[in-house]
């Protein structure tokens, strides 16, 4: 008697769909992406399958439908605290900074100083030459919460909280860590940025590769995100570079918009020889002047204020951001 035919692994059809070649392959539907990511998160996928799946999507680039399906699946697995805080703004930080300091953190502090409840999530960091947000927060004396429950508790009495991805979804962190083995980023980087675990009505996104702007925008619309803006930020973080133009793609109640913001500064800023974190609190307290840093803070804040419907025109958003900067609580850090 011959050997019985081998059963096809349940995850194999997803790889087959993506990898049949130029004429036979296609992207996943949102429901297929949801099912595939669900199997990955539940450990129902072989390591070889996971690597093939991630790289097939990386080569063709993920679609808005795939990202939306992946995000929905991850959200389904996140253990939320019983008392979910009313967060105003979700802010992701997954890239790290190596050209300029993370000036965007001062933009976030301005929002928090004005009573906007901001939840931030991101990567703990890699062994490279970048400054990651947890490192900067520690330097500024701002706490990093150990869990979503701790962040929720903090947001009951404060206006800012941060949690590392590994505390939100350990499995996603494990997949991101495969970058050192695979040699490439994976779609999980996009998914992590869009998690918005507390479902804040406003969401800011930063990417490095311009081609991902429309992907983030489209996925946000599919996820019915009320208000979202995505920019090609400095280093891939949510920081609107003040010395170059900035494309802002946004979603406002299912309407997709695009606007080009001209640079605030007349000339390009040279990369500093070193990144000195002490400049952040010194600028905040008014102990030093820093033309680029101040412009980066104001520009990033203005994009956020426009996305949050605080102002509709760029000029008015910049004026409001400037006023917030000039009237900040200098003893906050």
Automatic annotation (TrEMBL):
<keyword id="KW-0808">Transferase</keyword>
<dbReference type="InterPro" id="IPR036320">
    <property type="entry name" value="Glycosyl_Trfase_fam3_N_dom_sf"/>
</dbReference>
<dbReference type="Pfam" id="PF02885">
    <property type="entry name" value="Glycos_trans_3N"/>
</dbReference>
<protein>
    <submittedName>
        <fullName>Glycosyl transferase</fullName>
    </submittedName>
</protein>
<dbReference type="InterPro" id="IPR005940">
    <property type="entry name" value="Anthranilate_Pribosyl_Tfrase"/>
</dbReference>
<dbReference type="InterPro" id="IPR017459">
    <property type="entry name" value="Glycosyl_Trfase_fam3_N_dom"/>
</dbReference>
<dbReference type="GO" id="GO:0000162">
    <property type="term" value="P:L-tryptophan biosynthetic process"/>
</dbReference>
<dbReference type="GO" id="GO:0004048">
    <property type="term" value="F:anthranilate phosphoribosyltransferase activity"/>
</dbReference>
<keyword id="KW-0328">Glycosyltransferase</keyword>
<feature type="domain" description="Glycosyl transferase family 3 N-terminal">
    <location>
        <begin position="13"/>
        <end position="75"/>
    </location>
</feature>
<dbReference type="InterPro" id="IPR035902">
    <property type="entry name" value="Nuc_phospho_transferase"/>
</dbReference>
<dbReference type="GO" id="GO:0005829">
    <property type="term" value="C:cytosol"/>
</dbReference>
